[in-house]
Amino acid sequence: MRTFVFFIHDRRYSVPTLHLVSAPDEATAHALARQRLDETPHHLAIDVLEGATELFRLCRDGAASPNAGTS
Known about the structure:
The protein is α+β, with helices and mostly antiparallel strands. It is 20% helix and 48% strand.
């Protein structure tokens, strides 16, 4: 299992919420992040990192940016 970090941007809070997620691969982490984003309309975006590397960002508008690149 690998450990991924989700920073969940929520319209109700000024600071993103941190979640540690265990998943076997990046594809599963992507699916879990999509589920989190869809849980509530308050979730605006989720940044997914592994270690210090940002892998991608999912946004409410459906856009995903791979390797968003701020490490």
